[in-house]
Amino acid sequence: MKCIIIGGFLGSGKTTTIRKLVEHLGTQGQRTAIIVNEIGEIGIDGDAISAGGIETREITSGCVCCTLRISMEYTLRSLMSSYSPDTIIIEPTGIAFPRQIKNNIQSMNIPEITFAPIVSLVDPCRLSQDTGDLQNFVRNQIEDAEILGINKVDLIEPEKLFEICLFLRKLNSKARIVHFSARQGGEDLDKLFGLVNGNSQSKIALEVRNSVKIRNSIETRNSIEMSGVSTYSTEFEITSKEIPLETAISVSGQILDSIRSRVTGLNPDFTGHIKLSFAHKGNLVKGSVTSAYERYEIEVLKKGRNSRSRIKVLSAVTSVPREELVKAVDTTVSGQLEDRQLSYKKAEKNSHGYGQVTINPFK
After folding, report:
1. pLDDT of residue 337
2. Which has the minimum average pLDDT: 6-10, 239-243, 261-265, 269-273?
3. Which of 50, 69, 81, 310 is the most exposed place for a label (fewest CB within 10 A)?
4. pLDDT tens digits for range 4-36
């Protein structure tokens, strides 16, 4: 069974890339399962991936490279016994250390697992080429990679792409560099898929091994605390009976735009990922925004009919106090729903998990 680890900073396009990779593997008759790791207590990316009928497991409330290693081992062994996939794809949090994840899995002594080259995705629109401004965990992701995938090339000029390639080569002289648009697909994305069909290096070069030793004390600490990223996730159940799809799309966009605006007021240069899913009848409305300067993106995925309409929001952003982030998200979602006179219940965390508490009784 091959294990493919696809890392990259928050909002670099991991979920879209993985969805396309799963489609590619399906054409080859591969039986594939996905493990999605979310920072927050409520998962969103798993909804988007499983909408395509893919066997998906979510590990939430932390990072599998440090605090959730036991959860990862249990999930891997469970998938192997219950589903027997040919390939397992791991989508870690956007602040994880991919090589540490691989090392953790190797220490589990599961002989059936082999590894594809470690992939780290890069969003060229948000990557600082000033090494002094580059966060440690982003640098580690780049250095860990055996394949560096520059995503979203449809959004930049060729000159910018060339500069990014040179910058990445300075940080990692050994990785293969490919560039593509996961959203648009095409031959460039197929090159990435061809590379992950290979095997990870069986031996680590001496200088890389020494680098890993130097970083060991860093990587065994909590990657979320190191990152300076505040996180908050929440869920609302919409109890109003009739909601047109157009309304679900409009509400989703306005929620994302309003949260972005509020967070920008707290940190005008924030980066990270604000993402949302709206389960609506037989559809999943999925949206995201990744910086103060970016407009939100919305897409509608088909999935099995939902018995209830639910909105999930996950925000993970840099240099914003968590209590302010919680306030920005909760007041935005409740305000947008109340403006449209939509009745809802907000999921509240309790000692047994999440329970439902009625907040607004619009009919």
Report:
1. 96
2. 239-243
3. 81
4. 999 999 899 999 999 999 999 999 999 999 999
Token reading at 26:
């399906």
Residue 72: alpha-carbon gap to chain centroid: 16
Please give the pLDDT value at position 349. 63
pLDDT tier at 226 (50, 70, 90 boundaries)? Answer: low
Please enumerate in sequence order all residues whose Cβ is within 8 A of that of 57, keeping only pairs 6 or more positions apart, or say none.
Answer: 33, 34, 35, 36, 46, 75, 78, 79
d(CA 122, CA 341): 41
Separation of alpha carbons 20 and 308, rounded Å:
28
Which domains does the chain possess? 2-224 (3.40.50.300), 229-360 (3.30.70)
d(CA 131, CA 114): 34
Supply the pTM of this predicted model: 0.84
Could you give the angle at which helices 98-106 and 206-219 cross, rounded to 10 degrees?
90
Place of tokens 């599961």: 110
